[in-house]
Amino acid sequence: MHRLNNETNKALILRAMRFAAIDIGSNAVRLLIKDIDDSKAANHQQERIAYYRVPLRLGGEVFERGKLSKAKTKSLVKVMVAFRHLIDVQEVEAFRAVATSALRSAKNRDDVIAAVFRKSDIKIECLSGEEEAGLIFQNFKNVSSKFNRDLLCIDVGGGSTELSVVRANERIAWKSFKLGTVRMLKGTTPEGEWERIKAFVNECRGDKPWLAIGTGGNINRYHRLARLEKDANLSVSAIESIMKELSAVPLAERSALFGLKRNRADVIVPAGEIYLKILQFAETDFIWVPKVGLADGVIVSMLRDR
Q: How would you classify the pairing of strands 29-37 and 170-177?
């Protein structure tokens, strides 16, 4: 975690603490900046100050060739330098940069991390799958007792899917799987990964029904396309219906018809397939979409570390 020293930090702490998280994913690189008022320890007041997303799709190279090209590395360096300027301008007190499946799988990841640090003074942490699942879980630490049922937290990214099981506010099991939207597009999902996911869900099943929670940009988009209220559950039938509509439209036309970014238009269908199959394994017909993710969990973890 980076700590920034400047004269404004004392004033920031008095009203709220400003944190930033950089999430270097397989499909996109994101910067999230939040103010958090921790005067009420049990219920932190959070305000999103800024959010930036750059669709670099690092996984497209790594999952096919095993490493990042010089051109893609230069692009990542430029993005991180820009993010560093934005962090400085927003007078952030502390920030943390983490990388997930694509960068942690790259053979030249140490060289890439060193190049980023030289130009931006940002040190990237490559998370293990288990660490990634743990940070996402930070968003739901106090949720299971509220709903009085077990939680199955499902986070689908470009290169991996993280599952966490929460019972009575305790995370009792978690696992990362090499199954993601970019991997599916590239045909690089390891054989037997679906069977491993099914076995994990069955092993963790308790006496109470699951409450499935979905995180990730694609499930957020499904929720939006379903035109649901903020806290309304997204049904399996709604996901199936939207997937059918998306699949019937040529890829070149999806962005305009559904209001999708071009780098979202191709991965949204495989994302739906992943969520639907896991919900089938869990024998539940809906999913709650709170619209938080890894970057939010990173910020919560920084606050708790203080």
A: unpaired
Query: CA angle, 110 as apex, 109 and 113 as ends, to 5°?
Result: 85
CATH of 2-126, one of 1.10.8.60, 3.50.50.60, 3.40.190.10, 3.30.420.40: 3.30.420.40
Q: At what angle do helices 268-282 and 217-225 cross, to 10 degrees?
A: 90
Residue 61 CB neighbour total at 10 angstroms: 19
pTM, rounded to two decimals? 0.87
Helix axes 236-247, 251-258, angle to 10 degrees: 120
pLDDT, tens digit, 9 for 90 and up, residues 217-268: 999 999 999 999 988 999 999 999 999 999 999 999 999 999 998 889 999 9
- pLDDT tens profile 95-142: 999 999 999 999 999 999 999 999 999 999 999 998 999 999 888 876
Angle CA 115–119–121, to nearest 5 = 100
Q: Just give the CATH number of 141-293.
A: 3.30.420.150
DSSP string, 125-171: EE--HHHHHHHHHGGGTTTHHHHTSEEEEEEE-SS-EEEEEEETTEE
What's the rounded Cα separation, in Å, for the pair 82 and 78? 6
**Residue 129 tokens, joined:** 């799958």
Distance of CA 38 to the CA centre of its chain: 24
pLDDT at 15 over 90: no
Domain chopping of the chain, boundaries: 2-126, 141-293
Count of other CB atoms within 10 angstroms of residue 128 = 11
Structure tokens at 131: 């660490």
